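Re: [ENG-882] Designed sequences occasionally contain unexpected residues at chain ends

Forwarding the minimal case from QA. Structure tokens:
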């Protein structure tokens, strides 16, 4: 039986990704998938992409992959600055050309969504795979949530908001911090936000990911050396310092 580690929003944070992969190994996960935003914001796009190519069964396209592949449209200034810097890192002649090509092809061929049996994997929303934010308060808009759940056969996994938790039809959002232990999968539909590995924003600075075995959903929070990541960001002039400072707060 598969025991899948579902990661999202790594954002070029090598320390967080390494800690999560080690935890997934200890948790006896059989495979690792990623819901996009592997790059952007953080200081280690090449190292993280190297690990992604080696480790992930699939890796979806997020809005930050789109921002680097095309134009960072609709980004705030910090996200935009990091997108231009990331693009230069992946295209620079200072690095081996064949590896640049490999990274670029990986990003270009990343799928917008994956559907396996009745499980949908998407970066942002079943209605708009890379951009739409399904925030926790969306649960108070029943018409909108009906449209979201109409696109879900049974279970969908997403990321993008960096706010982990579970949406059920006609129920309030349940934040990850209020879910203890295994969350059982029943016959009803579910939309699970797996949170963010490399830039959590729910006030808990630990990396977040989900383990799914077909019957249960388990959220994992993993401490990592965020100070080291923040120091690297500080040393890179073109990356706004705030991107490192926020890692300490988990906001
Ligand atoms: Fe993201």
């Amino acid at each position: 039986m598969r025991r899948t580690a579902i990661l999202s929003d790594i954002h070029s944070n090598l320390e967080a990704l390494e800690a999560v992969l080690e935890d997934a190994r200890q948790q006896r996960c059989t495979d690792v998938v990623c819901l996009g935003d592997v790059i952007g914001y953080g200081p280690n796009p090449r190292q993280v992409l190297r690990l992604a190519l080696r480790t992930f069964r699939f890796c979806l396209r997020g809005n930050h992959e789109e921002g680097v592949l095309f134009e960072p449209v609709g980004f705030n200034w910090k996200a935009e600055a990091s997108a231009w810097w990331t693009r230069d890192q992946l295209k620079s002649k200072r690095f081996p050309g064949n590896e640049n090509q490999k990274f670029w092809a990986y990003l270009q061929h990343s799928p917008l969504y994956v559907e396996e049996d009745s499980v949908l994997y998407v970066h942002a929303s079943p209605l708009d795979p890379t951009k739409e934010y399904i925030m926790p308060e969306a649960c108070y808009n029943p018409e909108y949530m009906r449209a979201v759940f109409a696109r879900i056969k049974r279970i969908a996994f997403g990321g993008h908001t960096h706010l982990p938790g579970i949406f059920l039809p006609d129920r309030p959002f349940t934040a990850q911090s209020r879910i203890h232990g295994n969350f059982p999968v029943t016959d009803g539909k579910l939309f699970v936000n797996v949170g963010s590995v490399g830039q959590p924003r729910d006030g808990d600075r630990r990396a977040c990911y989900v383990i799914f075995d077909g019957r249960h959903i388990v959220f994992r929070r993993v401490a990592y050396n965020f100070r080291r990541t923040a120091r690297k960001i500080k040393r890179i002039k073109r990356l706004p310092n705030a991107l490192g400072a926020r890692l300490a707060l988990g906001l």
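QA comment: On inspection the terminal residues look reasonable. The two ends are 36 Å apart (CA to CA). Proposing we downgrade this to a documentation issue.
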